[in-house]
Amino acid sequence: METTIALTIALIIVATLAGFVYRFFHGRGHSVSGAQCINLEKLNISKNGDPVTAFGREATVVLFSTEYCGQCPAVIRALSKLEHRKGGLLFIEVDITQRIDLAAHFNINQTPTVFVLNPAGEIRFRVSGVPKPNAIETELTKLGVK
Amino acid sequence: MTINTHVDPRGPRFGAAITSILSLIAFFLSLTNQSLAYATVVALGVLFTWSLVSPSTHPFGWSFRKFIRPKLAAPKELEDPRPLKFAQQVGLAFALLGIVGGIFSASLISVSAAFIFIAAFLNAFFGLCLGCQLYLLIRRVGIIR
After folding, report:
1. Which among A1, A11, A71, A95 is the top mutation candidate for probing chain B, defined by the most B β-carbons within 10 Å of its own β-carbon?
2. What value does the mean pLDDT take over residues A132-138?
3. ipTM of the complex
């Protein structure tokens, strides 16, 4: 009986620890070295009806979403606001629902996934999941976005 | 093109909380009273199947709408049901592991209950839907469309 109770409590502890580990790492993001470049022609997306042909002057934030992504709309709103507040920042959204090949190409395992690109279009930072508050802004500051 | 009725995300989380309690009971029983544990895992399997066949009549959803939903503010965001449905299928797969495997080995009932508990617990208390996280990955591999 005692072992049974001990095992049951152990199971609860394991699940709780897993939850805290998830909470700690989820949305932190990490710097990317190796500088994979985004090709806007291949990405072939439009913003407000016009095709996107140039990166942001200081930085570009790319968000990958899907139709069924529940947490994406809130992140999109936050990033759109950020774009209006900062000069030289371009925010683009890529819906990969019908373009699952892009997920494989950029190794995207979940949506939202957010990339921060430098002016040359190189991926400098990536966040899987909902970015933690200020994670994107801190990265943009490093790139000189005011 | 299928029409998806979006759902209040707190409904499935409420369901997950009940599932986590049921599966924890199943895990505890699997170490003491195996036939009762088996019955609980079968009940979980039935509940998972129910949510796939007719989510609108599911008792968890019904009690959420009847007792919990009126006490809450309007949801900030509605959720697409596709990943949620997939998560229920993953849950059903683990319940089936216990139901079928339990015939041959009692330890599989414990394994099945433990997995369902961890997944449901993380969903209810940390907002992490393991099945939903797997959804894109599995679509990428091409197992489902």
Report:
1. A11
2. 91
3. 0.86
